Amino acid sequence: xxxxxxxxxxxxSRNLTEKEQERLASAVSDPEIRDRIRAVGLGxxxxxxxxxxxxxxxxxxxxxxxxxxxxxxxxxxxxxGMSRPVPAAMLSALAEPHLDQRRxxxxxxxxxxxxxxxWATRDINPNVSLLQPSGPDSxxxxxxxxDLISNQxxxxxxxxxxxxxxxxxxxxxxxxxxxxxxTYHRTETAIQAWSTAASSGQDDAVPTAACNLGxxxxxxxDADGAKAAYQQAIDSGDEDWAPAAWDHLGDLLREQGEVxxxxAAYQQAIDSGDKTWAPAAWDHLGDLLREQGEVxxxLAAYQQA
Length: 305
Description:
Strand order of the largest sheet: 1-3-2
């Protein structure tokens, strides 16, 4: 009692002070995470971790199979590269692969669906739930729940990629392609996502998708497809992706023995003055000149890089 009496009961406001806001900005680089901490409260954000983990274990153990499937559906949405809240209308289609045939019938029963959604959205504390409503008919998966599900290695069902891509716009397809290729090594899915985005006509998505598609097609041995994709990125005139495409095209032409074409492509990247791709193109031009026995030219190119 003497020890306990030495403590003082302190009440801390959920709202961050100005200094705490500054510390948050320096400690957390992701603006979405910062916004969630401001909205939820730091104590609730951190303190809910154990209860979130327990809720997921209960769901996996069968506490509410439909509710747990809805949580996994929201996780698949995020893991495939989508950052906006998942529409309620998408939850059933994405939850289906996580249920056996008998339980799928419950998913399409309105009462069972509502009960499952209530389980997934129930309060863990006043500001935290596994699924959190976000605007009309859409939901956000709690960040820590997403981390736990991802760390468990639960795969994204193959059919879910197609369902999500059908609801995505061109910019989102770029992100889906990146997740498919880099995180899950789904080459065909990435090709499909980037091809669709590249043909969308959406200015902010086309050059990114086209250049990434070119790199992927080149890796798959489709030189003609890669050239066409690089050319699309070049023709966009995008100040970031056109120089990248010129440099990649130079590498491809060099591998094919088209020395003059490769030199011209590298020069285009150099002439762009891009702080990343101009030095890269000088370096690659140096390699090409060295291979051609042009030692002085290679030295000069490397010096420029």
